[in-house]
Write a structure and sequence with these properties.
The protein has 133 residues and is mainly beta. The chain has one domain. The chain has no helices and 10 strands.
């Protein structure tokens, strides 16, 4: 299973990036429900990602805004909350990318600061700009 950077550029010949419509499946095969704390649109002030966004919608949808590249989608097969460490809620998503490859994405939510970290990159803080309707 591969680990990928969420907002990487697409490989030549592939369908840009990944992720948008997401059907999360729990252990029992029933759709999982995203935690309310993750729901909504997230953006960063980091200039490299100025035109990017990550949106989590209930009950189980993820959309990536990719600027001029539009949006991408992937099916998320699994969503799990891992142990919290130092006030961070940690999550792991397993999804199929646009090429059908299975990938994992780690998230860390620091609720008291309103910050979401995507992958291992702690230099880029994502902040919720709007809650899910």
């Amino acid at each position: 299973m591969q680990r990928r950077t969420l907002l990487r550029r697409a490989r030549p010949g592939s369908c840009a990036l990944l992720l948008v419509s997401v059907a999360l499946l729990g252990c029992a095969g029933e759709p999982a429900v995203l935690p309310e704390a993750l729901q909504g649109e997230w953006r960063t002030r980091e200039p490299r990602y100025a035109d990017r966004s990550v949106t989590f919608e209930a009950p189980a949808t993820l959309r990536l805004g990719l600027g001029d590249e539009g949006e991408q989608s992937a099916l998320i097969e699994r969503f799990a909350e891992r142990d919290s460490i130092n006030g961070e809620r940690r999550f792991e998503l397993t999804y199929l990318d646009a090429d059908g490859e299975r990938c994992e994405l780690d998230l860390a939510l620091v609720a008291n600061r309103g910050v979401l970290y995507v992958g291992a990159n702690r230099a880029v803080a994502w902040r919720r700009t709007q809650s899910s309707p």
